[in-house]
Design brief:
It contains 1 helix and 4 strands. It is mainly beta and about 55 residues long. Strands 1-2 form a two-stranded antiparallel ribbon. It has a two-stranded antiparallel sheet with strand order 3-4. The radius of gyration is 12 Å and the shape is globular. About 0% of the residues are buried.
Length: about 55
């Protein structure tokens, strides 16, 4: 799902346990994506920020 908010793109992906790696890799296929804020939907809390790494 993609939502536009005040000129910014918000990309949302949901994954089940064990599927986060695949979801993160798919999101980073978007060149304009610099980082991902990961949240735990069960508790509604911020878990981590995943940043793009260029080798």
């Amino acid at each position: 799902m993609t939502c536009k908010m005040t000129g910014l793109n918000l990309h949302i992906a949901r994954s089940l346990p064990g599927e986060a790696d695949r979801a993160i890799r798919q999101l980073f296929e978007l060149d304009e994506l610099a980082y991902i804020d990961v949240h735990n939907a069960t508790y509604g809390c911020f878990v981590a920020r995943v940043e793009r790494f260029e080798s």
